[in-house]
Amino acid sequence: MTAISVLIVEDEPAIAENIAALLTAKGYTPSAVSSGPEAFALIRKRKFDLILLDIMLPKMSGVDICKLLRADPSTADAKIIMVTGLDRMADVEEAFRAGANDYLIKPFDSTRLFAKIGKVMASP
Questions:
Q1: Alpha-carbon span 7 to 27, nearest angstrom
Q2: pLDDT at 1
Q3: For residue 40, what pLDDT band results from cuts at 50, 70 and 90?
Q4: CA–CA separation, 43 vs 103, rounded Å?
Q5: How far apart are CA 103 and CA 101, in angstroms?
Q6: The overall pTM is greater than 0.85
Q7: Taking the mean position of all CA atoms in its chain, how far away is CA 28?
Q8: In the chain, what are the helix, strand and coil shares in percent, each to the nearest 5?
Q9: 43 vs 96: CA distance, rounded Å
Q10: What's the CA gap between 73 and 81, in Å, rounded?
Q11: Which letter does DSSP use for residue 56 in this model?
């Protein structure tokens, strides 16, 4: 079985490194970028099984990135979990309207992260 490839789009290096370490320990293959333009450049080069997407990013919000991924036929079926410190219901609803598969509020523990990943990866 091939390892699940995960793109982490997170502008806080410590958070990105922590998530990558958790994923690596569980056998996933993580890659990380810190901005929307970097994410798009990498997604055009290769397909990821899952995208962990922060909302508050430089240059372009995660919500805008999610909308663009959903609008492009080559990435419309991407599995996307928003991972953010924004915890207002309006932020959660906006992320789901943009096309997010799930939403994880920072800070989170690894059990919650892997529960969300398992749920999203099992969905059609």
A1: 14
A2: 55
A3: confident
A4: 20
A5: 7
A6: yes
A7: 14
A8: 45, 20, 35
A9: 21
A10: 19
A11: S
